[in-house]
């Protein structure tokens, strides 16, 4: 009788754990993407492993004089102002669109859109320069929530082009 209860418990445990809502990891079926995420260099440019590596590369690439004006501006303003400068450099050289080990790392965190990746990194870079805590998880949640809200708002503006009604004919 004890074995019966043990088996019932194990079956219920497996179904309970299996049924939990876990976020799915990003998996691409694109062969170029799958090759790119394995490489440390793409087109002669070093690709960071993670956020710390990316921030240290950005610190190397910029001079203290160039970073000084950032200290007097809000992070959202910096993200907007640098989006088409340093942001585009990151997007292009770190291969956010076609995939790289760094863009894959960001996708695994939940940041899927390339513009969101750029904004995310610019805000983190600003926080690094200013000396504020990075709070990566909170920033990821904020960016993902904003994107979700934007998508929902856009869906509300969609117009129905046509509708069809199927008649159920019984012969």
Q: Explain this structure to me?
A:
It contains nine helices and two strands. The protein has 171 residues and is mostly helical. The protein has a domain at 30-146. Helix 3 (51-61) packs across helix 8, helix 5 (75-81) packs across helix 8 (114-130) and helix 6 (86-93) crosses helix 8. The longest helix is centred in the C-terminal third of the chain and has 21 residues, at 136-156. The model has no long low-confidence stretch (mean pLDDT 87).
Termini Cα gap: 58 Å
Helix residue percentage: 55-70%
Give the count of helical stretches.
9
Tally of strands: 2
Which percent band covers the strand fraction?
A: under 5%
Oligomer: single chain
Residue runs with pLDDT of under 50 for 5 or more positions: none
| Strands ordered across the widest β-sheet | 1-2
Average per-residue pLDDT, rounded, comes to 87
- The Rg value, from CA coordinates, equals 23 Å
């Amino acid at each position: 009788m004890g074995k019966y209860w043990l088996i019932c418990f194990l079956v219920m445990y497996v179904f309970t754990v299996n049924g939990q809502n876990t976020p799915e990891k990003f998996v691409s079926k694109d062969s170029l993407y799958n090759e790119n995420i394995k490489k440390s260099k793409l087109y002669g440019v070093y690709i960071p492993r993670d956020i710390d590596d990316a921030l240290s590369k950005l610190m190397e690439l910029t001079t203290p004089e160039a970073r000084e004006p950032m200290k007097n501006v809000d992070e959202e303003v910096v993200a907007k102002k640098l989006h088409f400068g340093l942001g585009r450099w990151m997007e292009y050289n770190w291969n956010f669109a076609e995939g790289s080990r760094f863009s894959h790392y960001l996708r695994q965190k939940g940041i899927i859109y390339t513009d969101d990746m750029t904004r995310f990194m610019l805000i983190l870079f600003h926080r690094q320069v200013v000396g504020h805590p990075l709070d990566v998880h909170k920033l990821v949640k904020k960016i993902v929530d904003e994107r979700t809200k934007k998508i929902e708002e856009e869906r509300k503006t969609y117009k129905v082009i046509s509708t069809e009604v199927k008649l159920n004919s019984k012969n």
